[in-house]
Write a structure and sequence with these properties.
Blueprint: E1 5-9, H1 13-22, E2 27-32, E3 36-38, H2 43-48, H3 50-57, E4 58-60, E5 71-81, E6 86-91, E7 96-100, E8 103-106, E9 110-111, H4 123-139, E10 142-146, H5 150-162, E11 167-171, H6 183-195, E12 199-201, E13 235-238, E14 244-245, E15 261-262, E16 275-277, E17 282-283, H7 295-308, E18 323-324, E19 333-336, E20 342-345, H8 347-363
Parallel strand pairs: 1-2, 1-8, 2-5, 8-16, 10-11, 10-13, 11-12, 15-17
Antiparallel strand pairs: 3-4, 5-6, 6-7, 9-14, 18-19, 19-20
Helix pairs in contact: 1-7
Bound molecules: flavin-adenine dinucleotide.
Flavin-adenine dinucleotide (FAD) binds at residues 10-15, 17, 31-34, 39-41, 76-77, 107-109, 116, 118, 150, 246, 249, 279-281, 291-292, 323-324.
Length: 374
């Protein structure tokens, strides 16, 4: 039997893991706008300690041992022919590419703020972007963080930890931040932010200029639609969660009303055998949570099961968000469960067990030395 060919569209957090899992079972082609995994996770660490962040979240594809057998194509996808089973796009030189598939895994994620954009970038451009955002915040004496989700909270906490002399204020629309998490999670984080001297400002909804979704750090005063006087700081960081799915390369009949890819619980695109979607782009549940709940394992299993006529498994989403909120800190890594309980892994265990053993070997099946910003 000829080997099947699987195209993984988008090699971000979940695409890389999916390609790794499938690499020994088929000819896998990974197509992505970046030459590396450039994760959307841990914005706060990325902005305040970019070299630390880069070691774990900006990983060139040649660092992953199990991607050696995967053909990586750096290109922007622009279309799919579902009948002919091909995807098309343009590579870094602007030349057209066409790739045939037996199975297609759509994992092109979302665009969010200035830190998650599906633009074609070289390693030098990725590094320059990380350094520029860090420098912009380093020189500011006061920073406003706008937003109430994980990216905003993590940014406020990490900026205050790295630069205790700056004035950091967090403005969010609700009575509490982190509405998608258990209330206990916010209570714990609130205590930490207060101890760090972060000013907390509930009930503030920012007036976003038309068409602006926080693509840059600004310096103009922020106006509030909730009635408070406008507020100024040297730098304004927008983490307002205006995510846009990276699906303009897909036909509209595959998408829901908000532009995310419609999927069955098995992560299949309905009525399109061989086509799957996973991660932030897949409309699995209101939080679109398959990336952080082992969607890579599920989709890899189901692609292989469909090839061999075995039963497929279904996705079950937890009702609440969970995970690390602040990233690795000097006092270790705190992980919040969907129940609001938290446990802290001490720094020695993160450095010697969690990152090398659980993440680099267990999850990625081997990562070569990586320190792209040092
Ligand atoms: C193991 C793991 C742990 C996690 N832990 C947490 C946690 O603790 N807390 C938390 O909140 N979240 C966590 N997350 C989830 C995280 O917040 C996001 O859900 C995750 O980053 C989404 O990954 P993605 O692959 O769907 O999207 P992305 O990582 O954004 O990947 C999409 C990729 O596709 C590329 N692309 C887009 N469009 C095109 C195109 N047209 N052509 C070519 N390439 C394109 C992009 O450039 C990008 O590289 C975790 C995720 C994982 C995998």
């Amino acid at each position: 039997m000829t080997r099947k060919r699987i195209v993984v569209a988008g090699l971000g957090d979940v695409g890389v893991l999916t390609a790794i899992r499938l690499s020994r079972h088929a000819d896998v082609v990974g197509i992505s706008a970046k030459p590396a995994l450039v994760s959307g996770q841990e914005l706060g660490v990325r902005l305040s300690r970019p070299a630390d962040w880069a070691r774990d979240y900006w990983i060139p594809f040649d660092r992953f041992r199990r991607l050696d057998g995967v053909r990586k194509v750096q290109a922007t996808l622009s279309g799919v022919d579902l009948g002919a089973r091909t995807v098309v796009g343009r590579d870094v030189d602007g030349a057209p590419i066409t790739e045939r598939y037996d199975a297609l895994v759509i994992a092109t994620g979302v665009t969010n703020g200035f830190w998650r954009r599906p633009t074609l970038q070289s390693a030098a451009e990725i590094g320059a972007g990380l350094r520029a955002a860090h420098a912009r915040l380093a020189e500011a004496r006061s920073v406003i963080v706008v937003g109430g989700g994980a990216a905003a909270v993590s940014s406020a906490a990490n900026l205050a930890t790295t630069w205790p002399d700056k004035r950091i204020d967090l403005y969010f629309p609700g009575a509490r931040a982190l509405p998608a998490y258990h209330p206990r999670t916010w209570r714990r984080i609130q205590g930490r932010l207060t101890r760090l001297g972060v000013g907390l400002h509930p009930g503030h909804r920012a007036d976003l200029p038309a068409g602006f979704a926080g693509e840059e750090i600004t310096a103009e005063p922020v106006r509030w639609t909730t009635g408070q006087p406008e507020t100024s700081a040297d730098a304004v960081l927008w983490a307002v969660g205006r995510v846009r799915p990276n699906t303009d390369w897909l036909p509209p009949e595959l998408l829901d009303e908000r532009g995310f890819v419609r999927v069955t619980p098995e992560l299949r695109v309905p009525g399109r055998p061989g086509v799957f979607a996973v991660g932030d782009v897949a409309a699995t549940d209101p939080l679109r949570s398959s990336a952080r709940n082992r969607g890579d394992a599920l989709v890899a299993h189901n692609v292989r099961a469909e090839f061999s006529g075995r039963p497929l498994r279904g996705y079950r989403a937890p009702g609440r968000r969970w995970g690390s909120l602040l990233g690795i800190q000097p006092d270790g890594l705190e992980v919040f469960l969907p129940t609001g309980q938290a446990f802290r892994l001490p720094p020695w265990s993160v450095e010697r067990v969690v990152m090398p053993g659980i993440v680099r070997w267990g999850m990625y099946r081997g990562v070569r030395r990586n320190d792209p910003l040092r």
